[in-house]
Design a protein that fits this description.
The chain is built from 2 helices and 3 strands, in the order E-E-E-H-H. The chain is elongated, with a radius of gyration of 14 Å. The chain has one domain. It has a 3-stranded antiparallel sheet, covered by helices on one side. The protein has 64 residues and is an alpha+beta fold.
């Protein structure tokens, strides 16, 4: 599954990431781009564990 996200570095040099899981926004930050992405990954996992996967992530398509 791919969740689109943004990555940017703020004026203080901190890397910031953001993504939406369904309608819930998730954020991550860190000293490096990789740290910020790892922080975002943890935030996404926490949302999925707490709220479950949004409908758009769980729709199955049967092809016969």
């Amino acid at each position: 599954m791919h969740i689109p996200y943004t990555v940017e570095q703020d004026e203080d040099g901190v890397w910031c990431t953001h993504a939406y899981v369904g309608r819930v926004g998730c954020n991550g930050n860190g000293d490096t781009r990789e740290d910020a992405l790892a922080d975002l990954h943890e935030a996404v996992l926490m949302i999925l564990e707490d709220d479950g996967a949004p409908d758009e992530f769980t729709i199955m398509l049967d092809i016969a």
